[in-house]
């Protein structure tokens, strides 16, 4: 469920008066997503997505996200393009929230990931990294390694109720990850998506019937960080089976396609296992925090933190980059 802020017909029509998008033909709330309120709009000018930014997005950061999407779209990346109103501004206000309209992307996200999705995903991720190289403004990763200790502290009171012994296991795992974490000046840095899960990647069937990436959405965790960390996020999110086993075929397809466009350095290859442990820790902790801090009955779909505990354990046992599909 992700329509937290209701928008009336009258408010939307008044809002659209500032755009050159023609008459409003249809308008509906989108139930998917958990962070922001999203509406699909059809106007005389085509299909669009209206997003009202809810409490987890800092309004001061929105210009950076919108500028990044504009930069990437201008370089041929299929991503939502913020639509400017007649005064030239894309970021506006509606129903008391910051709001923006973006272009609608065709395609569907894969409900069941297959190995055939992973090569196009790897290619799209590499193209994203290359296209971001000349976007100069930095945004630190608010959910990077410095954030994990404080987040674990906030989970400490409720963590063991989710699974006995969990907090002690995470204390030990986090200490190991932080001790081995590469310094940011030792690996290539750039603009990363940082949340490229299957529900943020749209596919269409190509001429040969194989899936092609048609677009990437949800750039609201994007930041300036280690490029290889974005790969680690994808290995976590795309390369495990429902039974918790690692699918090395998917991982190999993803990594090989990525490296055809941006070969990894020796230091990035060596760091990949700890980056994967870190990415597992990030999603484990944000899920655990939401799990313990969300009141029952809230309009938020809580995601299972223990899925990421299993992934963290897998990566902690992994024997070197080759076992991850490199
Ligand atoms: N530009 C777009 N084109 C087409 N559909 C979109 C677009 N942006 C969002 N959507 C639709 O809205 C849904 C929710 O979007 P999104 O994932 O950005 O939500 P969110 O609540 O901001 O993020 P999160 O996934 O972190 O909960 C998507 O699954 C997709 O169906
Ligand atoms: N993709 C995240 C949610 C948004 O960060 C998760 O599955 O935990």
Description:
This protein has 326 residues and is an alpha+beta fold. The protein has 2 domains: 9-103, 2-Layer Sandwich (Phosphorylase Kinase, domain 1); 115-324, Aminoglycoside 3'-phosphotransferase, Chain: A, domain 2. Helices cover 42% and strands 15% of the residues. The chain is built from 9 helices and 9 strands. It has helices at 9-16, 62-74, 115-131, 145-162, 166-180, 227-238, 248-261, 266-293, 305-317; strands spanning 24-29, 37-43, 46-52, 92-94, 97-103, 189-192, 201-205, 211-216, 223-226. The protein has a 5-stranded antiparallel beta sheet with strand order 1-2-3-5-4, with helices on one face. It has a two-stranded antiparallel ribbon with strand order 6-9. It has a two-stranded antiparallel sheet with strand order 7-8. The longest helix is centred in the last third of the chain and has 28 residues, at 266-293. The two termini are 38 Å apart. The model has no long low-confidence stretch (mean pLDDT 95). Bound molecules: adenosine-5'-triphosphate and L-homoserine. Residues 2, 30, 32-36, 38, 49, 80, 102, 104-105, 199-200, 217-218 line the site of adenosine-5'-triphosphate. Its EC number is 2.7.1.39. It comes from Roseicella frigidaeris.
The general outline is: globular
**Helical content, roughly?**
40-55%
- Termini Cα gap: 38 Å
| Average of pLDDT | 95
- Tally of helical runs: 9
CATH hierarchy class name of the largest domain: Alpha Beta
Strand content: 15-25%
- How would you write the strand order of the largest sheet? 1-2-3-5-4
Provide the low-confidence segments as ranges: none
H and E order: HEEEHEEHHHEEEEHHHH
| Strand tally | 9
What fold name goes in the CATH topology slot of the largest domain? Aminoglycoside 3'-phosphotransferase, Chain: A, domain 2
Rg result: 20 Å
* Quaternary state of the chains: single chain
Largest beta-sheet details: 5 strands, antiparallel
| Class by alpha and beta content | alpha+beta
InterPro entries: Aminoglycoside_PTrfase, Homoserine_kinase_II, Kinase-like_dom_sf, Pseudomonas-type_ThrB
Organism: Roseicella frigidaeris
Protein name: Homoserine kinase
Catalytic activity: L-homoserine + ATP = O-phospho-L-homoserine + ADP + H(+)
């Amino acid at each position: 469920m992700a329509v937290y802020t209701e928008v009336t017909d009258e408010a939307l029509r008044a809002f659209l008066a500032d755009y050159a998008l023609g008459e409003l033909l249809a308008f509906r709330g989108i139930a998917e997503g958990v962070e922001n309120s999203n509406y699909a709009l059809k106007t005389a000018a085509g299909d669009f997505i209206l997003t009202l930014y809810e409490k987890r997005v800092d309004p001061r950061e929105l210009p950076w996200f919108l500028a990044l999407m504009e930069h990437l779209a201008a370089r041929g990346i299929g991503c939502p393009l913020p639509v400017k109103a007649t005064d030239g501004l894309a970021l506006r206000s509606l129903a008391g929230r910051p709001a923006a309209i973006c272009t609608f992307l065709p395609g569907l996200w894969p409900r069941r990931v297959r190995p055939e999705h992973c090569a196009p995903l790897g290619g799209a991720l590499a193209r994203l990294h290359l296209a971001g190289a000349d976007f100069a403004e930095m945004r630190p990763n608010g959910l990077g390694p410095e954030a994990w200790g404080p987040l674990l502290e906030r989970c400490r009171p409720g963590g063991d109720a989710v699974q006995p012994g969990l907090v002690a296991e995470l204390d030990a795992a986090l200490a190991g990850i932080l001790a081995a974490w590469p310094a940011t000046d030792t690996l290539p840095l750039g603009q990363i998506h940082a949340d490229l899960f299957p529900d943020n990647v749209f596919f269409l069937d190509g001429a040969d019937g194989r899936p092609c990436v048609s677009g990437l959405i949800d750039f609201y965790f994007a930041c300036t960080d280690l490029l290889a960390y974005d790969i680690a996020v994808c290995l976590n999110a795309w390369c495990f089976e429902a039974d918790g086993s690692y699918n090395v075929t998917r991982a190999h397809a993803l990594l090989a396609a990525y490296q055809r466009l941006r070969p990894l350095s020796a230091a990035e290859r060596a760091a990949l296992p700890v980056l994967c442990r870190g990415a597992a820790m990030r999603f484990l902790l944000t899920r655990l925090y939401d799990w313990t801090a969300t009141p029952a009955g809230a309009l938020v779909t809580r995601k299972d933190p223990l899925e990421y505990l299993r992934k963290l354990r897998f990566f902690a046992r992994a024997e070197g980059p080759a076992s991850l599909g490199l």
